[in-house]
Design brief:
Blueprint (H helix, E strand, L loop, with lengths): L21 E6 L4 E4 L1 H7 L3 H4 L11 H14 L4 E9 L5 E12 L5 E9 L10 H9 L4 E5 L5 E4 L1 H7 L3 H4 L13 H14 L3 E8 L9 E11 L5 E10 L1 H19 L6 H15 L3 E7 H4 L15 E8 L22 H8 L3 E3 L8 H4 L2 H10 L3 E9 L2 E10 L8 H38 L10 E8 L10 E7 L5 E7 L4 H20 L4 H18 L5 H7 L3 E8 L4 E7 L5 E3 L5 E2 L19 E4 L5 E5 L11 H12 L6 H12 L8 E8 L7 E6 L5 H16 L5 H18 L4 E7 L2 E8 L19 H8 L2 E7 L2 E9 L22
Antiparallel strand pairs: 1-2, 1-5, 3-4, 4-5, 6-7, 6-10, 8-9, 9-10, 11-12, 11-15, 13-14, 14-15, 16-25, 17-18, 18-19, 19-20, 20-23, 21-22, 21-24, 24-25, 26-27, 27-28, 28-30, 29-30
Length: about 850
Amino acid sequence: MMYPTEVSPDGTHGPFEVANVAAAVIDAKGTVIGWTGAAERLLGYGAAEALDRSAAALLAQPEDASRAAEVAEECATRESWGGLVGVRHRDGHRVEVGLRVTAMADSDGRKAWLVSAIDVSKAPTWAVSGDVLEGFLTRSPLGMAVLSPDLRYVWMNDTLERYGGVPREERLGRRMSDSLPGLNTDALEAQMRWVLETGVPVIDYEYRGWTWADPHQEHAYSTSFFRLDDPDGKPLGVCYMGMDVTDRWRARERLALLSEASARIGGTLNVMRTAQELADFAVPRLADFVTVDLLEAVLHGDEPGSGPAGSEYLLRRAGQQSIHEGCPESVIATGDSIDAPRSSPYFASMASGTAVLEPSLDPVTTAWVAEDPARARSIAEYGMHTVMWVPLSARGTVLGVATFIRMEHPQPFEEDDLLLAEELVGRAAVWVENARRYTREHAAALALQRSLLPQGLNGGTAMEVASRYLPTDAREGVGGDWFDVIQLSGARVALVVGDVVGHGLNAAATMGRLRTAVQTLADMDLPPDELLAHLDDLVIRLTEEKGGDDEPIATAVLGATCLYAVYDPVTQLCTMARAGHPPPAVVTPGGKVTFPDLPSGPPLGLGSLPFESAEISLPEGSLIALYTDGLIETNDQDIDVGLSRLSDVLAQSGLPPEDLCTAVVNNLLTGEQTDDVALLLARPHALGADQVASWDLPTDPAIVASARELAVRRLLGWGLDDLVMTTELVVSELVTNAIRHGTGPVRLRMIRHDKLICEVSDASNTSPRMGHARTTDEGGRGLFLVAQLTRRWGTRYTQAGKIIWAEQDLPGRAHHQGGRTTGAGVDRPGA
């Protein structure tokens, strides 16, 4: 019998050395007639134990014997067989082997089998050796190549050949740069040289570029490099494996783009600016030319569709950007209304709320373009070849439409581009909607603020006034500071300035409440300390009532401050009281500035201390300044420095109040404004002796006729002949009331400035009341007649008693009859 001296490697054993293969020879009867050392190492049987024994005894299980019979039968018709078989080790444990059975014959022609086996647990690579391994490498979805130490291709698989778009035979033996001009081959070869020098592999090296397989589209690749060494550890070359990760790269780029968009769009809360930011951001990242058009209603802050019928598609260009400076390809300027064919995808996308992609735009064959010659010319001139229309939708409502166009970019828009545009526009739509809502609420807040602040200050002839109001955020224009000038009876003028906690709409609403309350209390002719006490009680009630959703308003009203001053042009005295507010600045006629030491009083709503009034003289030529703490106190300046700077500016007392207001603001607000500012300047003017007349009257009913004569004589001296008849009746009724129902002494005073005022005072504190006389009553109609014949009338209380007054317009001024009663008191018969 012939025994083989070696076993040639075949497709099964592939790269294994023969010495690693356990081999045995079995004759036709199934007896072991040949045994190698490798077989002994595999199964533990020595040659003496294995030879001349049945090969079936080496099988692990009975079923393996039946399997062996099938193999023997199959080998009778074939030259070889290969597969997995379980055999038994000498110590009894099972060994899985990869088996190859090959038919052979001796010189006598007797058949025998050469059996070779490998332990699959120790050499699992038998399964991918030979043809299998080559097929795996060649058809792998990863691009693979082997390069020589001088970085020339020596082998590559099919996938890499397909990636490069260059036939294999044109790349083998050549450098990477010879066939891949679209890649940064210098950087790639630098990576491979480093691997060759260090032996350290490079994993997941990413780069971008184009290849001849797709020369018009940039792709991204991830490649790993490792060195190939011989058994002695010397480098034979470098191998790299790469894959196309363009989808992953695009997804990452899309996320990065959207993240950047969030940081760069929508930071202004301005609808037009937000639209322009979207256009600026998208060019050239996504398109060469982008327009953003918004509904008219959105631009005004209104709800889309809230306008008149037919206005649902009235749009205006809100923003546009191009790779060409000045957007010469646009046929519509920013801010202009949109005039586009209703049959266009532009309107179709708005009507359906769905984005429209037109990969190929041909101005000749596209019907809707033919309806718009100006756009057709622009499309042709600038080479617009692909377009996307994406509606801006928020909360299910379409706000406008964004158009993306490519001209110089050669690639048409794809579905991935449309997805990115939809995501980008979707986010921008939220910012536009926020800006729209802000525009609406800001307009409402400004309207509220304007309605709450005085529209025009009127100090009459007794006072020249000027003011400034500067909220913390000039863009919002809404704050919590306020001021007012209120004309009181007797030609007196009240000056008010206040400050509530916080800023914005809640502060403005709270300010409006307090200002209305001050006007109401001032109308009752309360002295300053009493007025602040009533205002303090009101604030306490408001804070006790508030809670839950009204907590911001309760916070704003609690701790508010106020200063209230009343100037009398007859006496030239100003009576003031303050609730936690900075003191006023007073400028003498000579230009000296002082800050009167008024009793401070607690802020409103604390109810801990009483309020006190103080009285100062304001002679002709004086100036008084009322302000809030935002004018004199900032983060980098304390109050003393602010008061000193204010004093320096107010010393320029020769300036008109308007000019002086401007100088104060320009000189004190030089840095960042941190609080609302209200400033009220007033220059009082005294009433001369020729404008006031007064008489003390005895409490004798007969004196009424004398009082009428005195009044008429004074009117004639003032040239007010037209008011004689009415004034006679007013004086008669008021003096009669004082004599009948009051307590002496009685005093009649007449004042002429921008109105004629008649006042009758007595020492009683009982309040008059306009009665409702019956037909048969002889009296009770006096105050009713006064109310009908004068502009207004009322009562104010003094330390000595009360004063009943009535005002008449001077000739040439509008006369208003039916004045209101502003006094209050007990019910008693009228005159």
